[in-house]
Amino acid sequence: WGRCKSKRNMKNKTVVITGANCGLGKATALELAQRGARVILACRDPEKAQKALIDVRSRSNNGVLKIMELDLSSFDSINNFAKEFVRSEEQLDVLINNAGVFQCPFMTTKEGFEMQFGVNHLGHFLLTKLLLEKLKQSAPSRIVVVSSALYKTGCLNFETLN
């Protein structure tokens, strides 16, 4: 546990980080930007993403940062993100599935799934599936799934997934 001890140079590597506007996602964006990576902040809120981009850019001295809007609670948004990414980007070396929601009041995604299940699991699953070919073309590539121990405190009712 703790900070990554690797000093690997990430120059010429393209990394997508979901939920990169705050918390672990933003810290990961900063670390990878400092290592020279081209970092794409995949975020739901463009204003918060812009503030994060400015902060990461100023602290990393790396101008190779980009914002792409992504709402993991919407399959349409995920599909649009993936289509635009595949169209505009040559490679994808690392996909970091970091975004997540927790302890929110009961809400549903646009498709009718419970919000936490929809965003934290289904949204990232669909995103990964849609970007998998680009990841394969960029091999050796990586998919990183960020999680927490909070899953141990919850329960899943399979009768009410949607």
TrEMBL record:
* Any one GO molecular function term: oxidoreductase activity
Please give the SUPFAM superfamilies that the UniProt record associates with this protein: NAD(P)-binding Rossmann-fold domains
Q: Which UniProt keywords apply?
A: Oxidoreductase
Query: Cross-referenced InterPro entries, in alphabetical order?
Result: NAD(P)-bd_dom_sf, SDR_fam
Stored Pfam families: adh_short
Q: What is this protein called?
A: Retinol dehydrogenase 14
